[in-house]
Each structure stands twice: as structure tokens, then as C-alpha cells.
Amino acid sequence: MREIIKYADSLEISVENLQIFLLNAPKMYKVYKILKRTHGYRVIAQPAKQLKEYQRKFIKIFSQYLVVHEYAMAYQKNKNIQQNAEIHKNNSYLLKMDFENFFNSITPALFWNEWENTNPDIFDEDEKNLFSRLLFWNPNIKRTKQEKLILSIGAPSSPSISNFVMYRFDKLITQYCLDKNINYTRYADDLTFSTNTKNILYQIPVEVSKNLSLLFGNKLRVNNSKTVFSSKAHNRHITGITITNNNKLSLGRERKRYIRALVHQYKYAQLEKADIQYLKGLLNFCKSIEVSFIHSLAQKYGNETLKNIMKE
């Protein structure tokens, strides 16, 4: 119990009080739904304030063990969706895949299996059980139901845990792709592959499935309905960014139209406070992806309008 003692000391509480707290921790979540972009809902489980603090502390203390692959582009310092797209922009052929119910498919069993393959003999079984209760959510509301712990969308520790769980997968897929001159990145649950070699990407789904089975026993699955092959003959989109036929990053027509509409509403005082904050984020995003679009907005709506939005 050496590591749990060190962890409890960092929180300035006794091991006994920590154990009592963790007994109910998997139920200490506020659950709500948000609409997905396409159809259905995404369930967000947000931990209580104290539990969030405890989860952040775990990540801080044990971060040296939570290795992340260099081509995992989400939740990492100095990495973002722009850099993710940059890696693929000069390649003609593109494959996009994503996982089905990614965060909620990650269980303590998957996490500790990857942990033992990377960091053996650090935690004993009692510590693993306690830390599982710290890091994973129980979606079963009724106490009579059997406890089922899964990773939640909404916990501050979940991004680090998910990236760590995928480390060996990322490593295997990267090596396979390097041997075939294919670029690979993963942004959370989005897998992107690109190359200038025609038809070679059709081999990738089989390789992905093989490695998921090898590492996770198919507990993590690809959402086959979202597997998309594309090329310069069609629109190429990567995590919300469009790649033009001259290999430039673009916001895409639909997003530009949406941003114009929001700026128009702001100019005529028709935008609510929360939407203004969202618009500010979009404009900052525009500056990093396609600054020429900012210039066109300034010409149409005036520099003063854009300045006022950023001051809000």
C-alpha cells in the first residue's frame, strides 16, 4: 500500500478517510446529455468537485508512468487539430476511422492490463482497486445493479487515461505505417491515415482490427459506418479542418457560412452571451487555420465589429 499512502499524504488526508471517500466515488457524478453533430446524444458524466481534484492529483503524481505516443494529437501540450491536419495535408489519399463509444469502452481491466505491460509491479491489487474507484464511473443508477466501472466523458483524468491505454496500439500502428510510407495520427477516437501510394490504405482496416483484437480482445471497436476513404478527387476533411486541392488548410464552406451568420447576428445585437463566447473561440481558431477569412469578415462587417467581439 506504499503508493496509496503517498497519494493520501499528497491530499493531506488519512488512508482510512480516502478509502471511505473512494467507496462512493464511482457514483459521485452529475450526468447529462448533449446532442451529437450527426444524430443521437453523447452522455457526459462530470465528477463532483472534490473527486475532480483527487483525479487531477493522481494524474500529476503518476504522470511519469502515463506514457503517450508522439502521434496521439489530442489533450497534449503544443498539439492540436491544426497540427494533426498538417501531418496529412501533402498526401493525396486519406482514410478516416473512429472508435465506437471510445471513452465508455475503456474499463479498469483494460487500463491495468496496459499498466502492467508498461509499468509492472508499482501497484498492488488493493491499490489498483482503490484507484479504479477514483478514475472510473459507475453508470448504473440503481444500487441493486452490479457495479460496472467505465471511463467517463467529463472527468479531468479521462484524457490522460485514454491516451495511455492507446499507447501500445499507437506504437504498433505507427510502425506498420512507417514501413509502408503511410502517415498515421490519432486525435482521441479519430484515426487518420494518409499516403501518396494509391490503394495501399485499403489494407489498414484489417490491420487496425487485428491490433485491437490482440491488445484489447475487441473490447474497443471501430465504428465501421464512419470509415471513410477519400482523395484529392473529393473533399478531404480531418477533425473539422478541410484540406484544399492545393494542400492548404481551410475552414471549409459550411463553417465559414456559420461563422458569418454568427458575426451578422452579433452586429445587430441578436447573439446571446454564451454564443458570443463561442464565437470568440471560433475566431481565434480561424486565425490559426485561415487568416484570410478573418480579413474577409473585417471587410464585410468592419474591423470594429471583430474587435468588439474579442473584447466581450
Automatic annotation (TrEMBL):
Ranges of residues in domain Reverse transcriptase: 15-243
Domain of life, source organism: Bacteria
GO biological process: defense response to virus
NCBIfam families (alphabetical): retron_St85_RT
Lineage: Bacteria, Pseudomonadati, Pseudomonadota, Betaproteobacteria, Neisseriales
Family: Belongs to the bacterial reverse transcriptase family.
PANTHER family in the record: NUCLEAR INTRON MATURASE 1, MITOCHONDRIAL-RELATED, RNA-DIRECTED DNA POLYMERASE
UniProt keyword Transferase, yes or no: yes
The keyword Cell cycle is assigned to this record: no
Residue ranges crossing the lipid bilayer per the database entry: none
GO terms of molecular function: metal ion binding; RNA binding; RNA-directed DNA polymerase activity
Protein name as catalogued: RNA-directed DNA polymerase
Alphabetical list of Pfam families matching this protein: RVT_1
Keyword set, alphabetical order: Antiviral defense, Magnesium, Metal-binding, Nucleotidyltransferase, RNA-directed DNA polymerase, Transferase
EC code(s) of this entry: 2.7.7.49
Catalysed transformations (reactions): DNA(n) + a 2'-deoxyribonucleoside 5'-triphosphate = DNA(n+1) + diphosphate
Organism: Snodgrassella alvi
EC top class, as a word: transferase
SUPFAM superfamilies assigned: DNA/RNA polymerases (SSF56672)
